[in-house]
């Protein structure tokens, strides 16, 4: 741990100057208490640093929560082991690509599935109780439940250190969560301008507890967080069904273990004797004994962990590897042949579209996990055998 200022603590051994300065600026906001915690995978983000944990009293900065509200991971441990898997993994990858719409604007063409309908009914009821209409933000929000998106979102089949097979995926609240976030970021910025509130950066605009604007944001943010959780459940159901068909199972895949956790979200928690709004922007809850998931980059290991309850980290841990190269820089720097080398032995769609996701564009995940040694205990190390991504 590195004490950068009394209000900024860092667990990152790899930290760019621009990232440090951005986090330092966030930590100067007058309602931050007791300090901002920077995770080992911290890197530059919109307004606030990705990989930061921001506790606030009486206010929330919507941009510090992020635009993919509720983004996170789900993992399921099956009862299968590597030796029981068919040799040809391409049919499984292609089946998953058919079952789960992948791209940024993809729509779910199977909303009539029973489990999809039940989840949509649940979300509709939650929105009614929260007093808002999701369609005001995204007209086709129902059609994106059960869709992956692009960028660093993925679906994987992995094996752990005992060769047990896990299904693993990463996604969030899709277009509707993004639109909700953008709408409230704009409201916060308009209020700052209206009330002549000086800000070190416009994306640190905040909403004040006790106002209608704050209440509306919290209600809609919580809805989007639940949307993200159900979106991952929906996709996992489909992935598990395709996996069962591929291995020749006669029924559903038995789930020996299941973990579903956010890493872009806000919740009320108690830290250092005060009730705070804790925004984890690219960080997981790592309270003592809590299961969590920390993915590596495309082609590298991922980790199943339990939290150590580190008080200074605000019971938090990293959410992944963290970028070292921007997407445009990665495309200029790396080649398709280098991507093929990095993905050797893994079934994936061989395309230039994934160049910006090459492992070398990210911080080394083993370094991140070394930095996180006092934040989490590693339970399982997962190695990919199948990777699915959206363009």
From TrEMBL:
Record keyword Ligase present: yes
SUPFAM superfamilies for this protein: Hypothetical protein PH1602
Required co-factors: Mn(2+)
Binding site for Mn(2+) 1: 68, 153
EC number: 6.5.1.8
Pfam families reported in the protein's UniProt record: RtcB
Catalytic activity of the protein: a 3'-end 3'-phospho-ribonucleotide-RNA + a 5'-end dephospho-ribonucleoside-RNA + GTP = a ribonucleotidyl-ribonucleotide-RNA + GMP + diphosphate
Source superkingdom: Bacteria
Active site: 319
Cofactor-binding details, from the entry: Binds 2 manganese ions per subunit.
Binding site for GMP: 152-156, 263-264, 295-298, 302, 319-322, 389
Binding site for Mn(2+) 2: 170, 263
Gene Ontology biological process terms, A to Z: DNA repair; RNA processing; RNA repair
Gene Ontology molecular function: DNA ligase activity; GTP binding; manganese ion binding; RNA ligase (GTP) activity
Keyword terms: GTP-binding, Ligase, Manganese, Metal-binding, Nucleotide-binding, RNA repair
InterPro entries tied to this protein: RtcB (IPR001233), RtcB-like (IPR052915), RtcB-like_sf (IPR036025)
Name of the molecule in the record: 3'-phosphate/5'-hydroxy nucleic acid ligase
Organism name: Nocardioides zeae
């Amino acid at each position: 741990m590195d004490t950068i200022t009394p209000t900024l603590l860092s667990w990152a051994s790899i930290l760019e100057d621009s990232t440090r300065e951005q986090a330092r600026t966030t930590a100067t906001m007058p309602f931050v208490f007791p300090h901002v915690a920077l995770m080992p995978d911290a890197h530059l983000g919109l307004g606030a640093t990705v990989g930061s944990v921001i506790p606030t009293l009486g206010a929330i900065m919507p941009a510090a929560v992020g635009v993919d509200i509720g983004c996170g991971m789900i993992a399921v441990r099956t009862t299968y082991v590597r030796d029981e898997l068919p040799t040809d993994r391409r049919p499984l990858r292609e089946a998953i690509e058919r079952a789960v719409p992948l791209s940024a604007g993809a729509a779910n063409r199977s909303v009539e599935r029973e489990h999809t309908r039940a989840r949509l009914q649940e979300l509709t009821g939650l929105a009614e109780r929260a007093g808002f209409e999701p369609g005001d933000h995204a007209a086709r929000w129902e059609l994106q439940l059960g869709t992956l998106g692009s960028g660093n979102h993925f679906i994987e089949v992995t094996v752990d250190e005992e060769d047990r097979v896990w299904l693993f995926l990463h996604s969030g609240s899709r277009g509707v969560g993004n639109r909700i976030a953008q709408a409230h970021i704009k409201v916060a910025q308009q209020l700052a301008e209206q009330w002549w509130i000086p800000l070190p950066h416009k994306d640190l605009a905040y909403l004040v507890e006790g106002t209608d604007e704050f209440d509306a944001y919290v209600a809609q943010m919580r809805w989007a967080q639940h949307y993200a959780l159900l979106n991952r459940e929906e996709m996992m159901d489909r992935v598990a069904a395709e996996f069962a068909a591929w291995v020749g199972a006669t029924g559903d895949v038995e789930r020996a273990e299941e973990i579903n956790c956010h890493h872009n979200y806000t919740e009320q928690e108690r830290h250092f004797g005060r009730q705070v709004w804790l925004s984890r922007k690219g960080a997981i809850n790592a309270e003592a004994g809590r299961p969590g998931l920390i993915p590596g980059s495309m082609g590298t290991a991922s980790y199943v962990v339990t939290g150590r309850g580190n008080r200074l980290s605000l019971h938090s841990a990293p959410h992944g590897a963290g970028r070292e190269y921007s997407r445009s820089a990665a495309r200029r720097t790396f080649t398709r042949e280098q991507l093929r080398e990095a993905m050797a032995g893994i079934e994936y769609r061989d395309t230039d579209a994934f160049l910006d996701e090459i492992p070398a564009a990210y911080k080394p995940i083993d370094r991140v996990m070394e930095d996180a040694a006092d934040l989490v205990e590693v339970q399982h190390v997962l190695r990919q055998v199948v990777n699915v991504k959206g363009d």
